[in-house]
Amino acid sequence: MESTGSDNVAPLVGSGQLLSNGDVSGFGIFSNPKQHWNAVVPLETRNAGKYILAFDNTTPLTTGVAVASLAAQAQNVTAIVKDDKGLQIGGNAAISLSAQGHTSFMLNNPPAGFPSTAGKRGTIEFDTPPGGQLSVLGLRANGPALTTLPVLANVGTTGGSITHVAYNGGWTSVFYIVNTGNASAQFTLSFVDENGVALSVPLLLRQSGTNTTTSALTRTLASGEMLVVDTNQQDSPIAIVGSAQLTTTGNIGGFEIFRWNTFGQEASVPLESRSPNSFVLVFDDTDGLTTGVALASNFGLQANITATFRDDTGAQIGVPQLVTLAPHGHKSFLLPDLLQAAAGKRGMVEFAATPGQSFSVIGLRAKSDGTLTTIPMLTK
Predict the structure, then answer these.
(1) Which CATH number fits domain 278-379: 2.60.290.11, 3.40.640.10, 3.40.50.1370, 3.30.565.10?
(2) Where are the alpha helices (DSSP H) in the chain?
(3) Fewest CB atoms within 10 A around its CB: which of 98, 142, 181, 240?
(4) DSSP labels for 256-324?
(5) β-strand 265-270 against 252-260: which pairing, if any?
(6) Nearest in space to 296 (alpha carbons), one of 256, 348, 342, 251
(7) Which 3 state secondary structure label does DSSP give 148?
(8) Measuring CA to CA, which residue among 326, 323, 353 is closest to residue 335?
(9) pTM to 2 decimal places
């Protein structure tokens, strides 16, 4: 389903809610074709006591936020702003929402936002009122690039996988790592190449200006602290790709933003901490769209993953295809390269591994003009 409207009409904004009597899920993509913007809006199914948005308003970045209430009565949402050291900036703020109401604003907008965030990095905690239910979404603008930001909630101690890491050859990756817990904790961000071999990555720790090259970055974060880690792009025309694994001693989470410098576009990659029976990727290769996919193994032995394609009526396309990953290995490709019969179609592809084999998947949707976004993975 696609909304329609004239460019001459003022924008209409709000929120949506999906209700179902079965196993129905989905996501949204909002776009501005003239600006080559595509930004994904995942379906929020968590009902958390708090949601944490990592923001970065350092030049040239700006961060926006949208908050929606599912409550049947008006509510006040408490917002706690902290800098990247975990220190609170100012007092608690309140956001007033009407029954099932919605608001959105740029953080550095004085009338509606939090002017104290101007020129800073940090986090904002949105606390769910008693009896309420919220959904929160972040937005990052970087010159011509626009992408949504994963919002952290119910962060555990198991860490997770960042399915696709890319740098050089027109690509860079930046990682935002946040301690959402109440105590200091340590994390290790480990990088591996396509074959599961440790990959030494040139990194810039942006807050301190420190450069290091390592396959495993270990740091300790205070409660509420956030660390920004950039891949330090080289002049090599050949892209280096792989995946990353986050392990931690506490409640540390995060996400990645990877940037396609060729077109000045960005897309976000959430930390994957789920272990479902299978992942489902919704794809659309019509009207100039192209769908790619990356898979990463979190398993110490060879992983055998079966990909079953269906069109948008649910009918199977071709025969299931086998994707083999080396121990802790990684692969990325366009869907028609795996199954040619999927070219020019819409549908779903289900990735399933042998029970006990842990892996992660991320989808990527692109157009030839550089329009780019990731695609949320559904689970079964």
Answers:
(1) 2.60.290.11
(2) 335-338
(3) 98
(4) EEEEETTTTEEEEEE-B----SEEEEEEE--TT-EEEEEEEE-SSS-EEEEEEEEETTS-EEEEEEEEE
(5) antiparallel
(6) 256
(7) strand
(8) 323
(9) 0.96
61-69 and 102-106 strand pairing: antiparallel
What residue has token string 């019509």? Answer: 286
- Calpha distance 23→219 (Å, rounded): 40
Q: Which fold has domain 160-270?
A: Jelly Rolls (2.60.120)
Give the residue from 288, 324, 290, 330 showing the smallest Cα distance to 307: 324
CB distance 251 to 187 below 8 Å: no
Residue with tokens 């595509």: 38
197 contacts: CB under 8 Å, gap ≥ 6: none
46-74 pLDDT per residue, tens:
999 999 999 999 999 999 999 999 999 99
Query: Quick check: helix, strand or coil at residue 343?
Result: coil
Look up residue 339 and give its amino acid: L
Over residues 240-250, the pLDDT tens digits come to 999 999 999 99
